[in-house]
Amino acid sequence: MEIESVKCECCGLKEDCTQYYINQVKAKFDGKWLCGLCSEAVRDEVSRGKKPSPSAIEEAVKAHMSFCGKIKANPAVCVADGMRQMLRRRSTTSLPVVRSSSTSQVDGS
C-alpha cells in the first residue's frame, strides 16, 4: 500500500493516507477530502438537520468550508463564530439552568 499526502479542503491540514482511504472519504463528502475533525463537524451538522435531504452533506460541507475560510482570513472571527455557535447550541439543548443556592455568608469580623 502506497501512502499519499493529502490536504483537507476545509482547514488545510495535511495527512498521510492510503489512496483507498482517500477515495472512501471523498466518496462520502461530495468528492472533497476532509480531515477527521472537519468530517466530524460536517457529520454533526448533517445529523442536526431537521429534514434529511440528498443535498444535506453537500450543504454541510459548503457551510463548514465557509466557516474554515473565515477562520483563516481573520482569527478574531474564529472566536466570535465559536462563541455564537456555542450559545446557539446551548439555547437549543434546553438544559435546565443551574443556579447556586448557597446560603453561606462572609463573616465581616
From TrEMBL:
Pfam families: DUF1677. Residues 92-109 have a biased composition (Polar residues). InterPro entries: DUF1677_pln. Residues 90-109 are annotated as: Disordered. This is Uncharacterized protein LOC107488508. It comes from Arachis duranensis.
